[in-house]
Amino acid sequence: MGRKEIVQEDFISADVLNRMSVTLDYDLRFEPGAVVPKLWHWLFFLPHVKASDTGTDGHPKTGGFIPALEGLDRRMWAGSRFRFHSDLKAGQPAERKSVVKNVTRKQGRSGELGFVLVEHAISQSGRRVLTEEHDIVYKPAPTSAATAASINEGLKPPEKRAQWSDSNLHSK
Question: Is the pTM here over 0.85, yes or no?
Answer without folding.
Answer: no
